[in-house]
Structures are given as C-alpha cells and as structure tokens.
Amino acid sequence: MTYLALDVIFLALAGAAGLVAVFVHRGRRGAGGARLLPAIGITMAVTLLLTAVFDNLMIAAGLFWYEEDRLLRAYVGLVPVEDFAYPIAAAILLPSLWILIGRRSTTDD
Question: Residues of the chain with pLDDT > 90: what percent?
C-alpha cells in the first residue's frame, strides 16, 4: 500500500468527522460553524508549519526515512507531501471530536 492510499483513508475519515461536527455544532448553537472552521484553519496552519520544520530536521538527522517506491516523489524540502496528510487530518479531527464528544455547555441561569 502506498503512503497516498493511507492518506486518502485518514483524510476521508477526518473529513467525515468534520462534516458531522459542523452539523452538530450548528444544531447546538445556531450558526455555530462560524467558530469551528477558523479553529480548524488556524490549527491546520500551525501543524503544517511545525511538520515542515521538524520533519525536515528529523529526516536530515537520519531519524527516519520513507520507502521511495511508495512515494509520489514530491517534496517540501526533504519531507514527502504525503507526510502532510496527518497534520491535516489531526487539525480536522481534534476540533471535531471536541465538538462531538466534548463537554456540553450548561447554564445555571
């Protein structure tokens, strides 16, 4: 199995959870998706930047490597583009899971 095939599976699952979370969040708070989407965007930008920096350092140091025949052979520095699917999936999944299984707000009014 190629790294791209694994990425497609992870991103499809994360995307499905993200869509469900948007609908659940809107149902709880009216137009609530307005805060969820910027949170996902900011999280994604930060995780992609950190992945680019630290994966380049770790690959350069020889801490890990990839099977070349399973890659698209497109890179950001030393990092194959397939490696960026995991931070994207995490940036979608974490806020989505927070919405789906997180604490429900209660008011004492």
Answer: 38
Separation CA 62–CA 60 (nearest Å):
5
For the chain, the straight-line distance linking the first and the last C-alpha, in angstroms and rounded, comes to 55
Dist. CA 89–CA 91, nearest whole Å: 5
Q: Write down the domain spans for the chain.
A: 3-101
pTM: 0.73
State the SS3 of 12-51. Answer: HHHHHHHHHHHHHHHHHHCCCHHHHHHHHHHHHHHHHHHH
pLDDT at 4 over 80: yes
Task: Give the Cα separation of 10 and 83 in Å (integer).
Answer: 12
